[in-house]
């Protein structure tokens, strides 16, 4: 009995000592973590600023061929396709993962002709400064993480809008969406039967957790803003960007999250 007690005391003493040591370690580790986090935040703010400048340049100089989101679908792309030249899809990670940032910089600066590619990719070193080309590299590096079919302007509006409020979303939903999606969002509104009969499409059941748990907020937002047709879904899902503000559409996304009982992602 006494032995057990003594053992317990020894263990307690050890534990206290160990705690003191780990506390001291934690304090210095916490300080180091805080410094690292501050550095990371500063770095990411710097990169974010470069990406933003790069996007601006990209929309001015590159999007007519490569498309706003780098999907290779700019206005001029169709013309090249007739001559059997494909404008590179800069949002394709299989392709872009093979290029280092240095190679990327070289293609942009020197053009396709000097880098074993089509000379329809122009050289930019004479028109843009090295800093501008660096900014473009930072932006192009991000393209693969952006949804290929969401235009950058839509994504920018989404990011700039305040966080959505589910209750506001509900009020808008009752006003604009129940005709098709039904008062509880189950896809059974008064207009749904007609859509099924005439167009063989069904409004999505917005309470379907399995479906919505894998969808990103920005994708839901984009579908609401630009309509189903923009994403090869049913065109009967209308575009709302002319009717609703970005903040309102974000609240609708928040409402869809609440009725589908899924987490934001
Ligand atoms: C006049 C049309 C046009 C413009 C403008 C243009 N590009 Fe290109 N770009 C192309 C074509 C075509 C290719 C494909 C070349 C090939 O694969 O042979 C290409 C290829 C590229 C590649 C190489 C991708 C790879 O996988 O090898 C990069 C990077 C690139 N462009 C970036 C840019 C940037 C950045 C701008 C703007 C500063 C820009 N391009 C402007 C037509 C254009
Ligand atoms: C005229 C009928 C109609 C109206 C009104 C309507 N929708 Fe839809 N909605 C549809 C149809 C049809 C689909 C299914 C599209 C598909 O999957 O091909 C759909 C799909 C959706 C989806 C699923 C998108 C995805 O990624 O699969 C969401 C979210 C959505 N609607 C939200 C809304 C909201 C919010 C409103 C009101 C602002 C609204 N809808 C109004 C018909 C409608």
From TrEMBL:
<keyword id="KW-0249">Electron transport</keyword>
<feature type="domain" description="Cytochrome c">
    <location>
        <begin position="164"/>
        <end position="260"/>
    </location>
</feature>
<keyword id="KW-0732">Signal</keyword>
<dbReference type="Pfam" id="PF13442">
    <property type="entry name" value="Cytochrome_CBB3"/>
</dbReference>
<dbReference type="InterPro" id="IPR036909">
    <property type="entry name" value="Cyt_c-like_dom_sf"/>
</dbReference>
<keyword id="KW-0813">Transport</keyword>
<dbReference type="InterPro" id="IPR008168">
    <property type="entry name" value="Cyt_C_IC"/>
</dbReference>
<dbReference type="InterPro" id="IPR009056">
    <property type="entry name" value="Cyt_c-like_dom"/>
</dbReference>
<dbReference type="GO" id="GO:0020037">
    <property type="term" value="F:heme binding"/>
</dbReference>
<keyword id="KW-0479">Metal-binding</keyword>
<feature type="domain" description="Cytochrome c">
    <location>
        <begin position="49"/>
        <end position="144"/>
    </location>
</feature>
<dbReference type="GO" id="GO:0009055">
    <property type="term" value="F:electron transfer activity"/>
</dbReference>
<feature type="signal peptide">
    <location>
        <begin position="1"/>
        <end position="20"/>
    </location>
</feature>
<dbReference type="Pfam" id="PF00034">
    <property type="entry name" value="Cytochrom_C"/>
</dbReference>
<dbReference type="GO" id="GO:0005506">
    <property type="term" value="F:iron ion binding"/>
</dbReference>
<keyword id="KW-0408">Iron</keyword>
<dbReference type="InterPro" id="IPR050597">
    <property type="entry name" value="Cytochrome_c_Oxidase_Subunit"/>
</dbReference>
<keyword id="KW-0349">Heme</keyword>
<protein>
    <submittedName>
        <fullName>C-type cytochrome</fullName>
    </submittedName>
</protein>
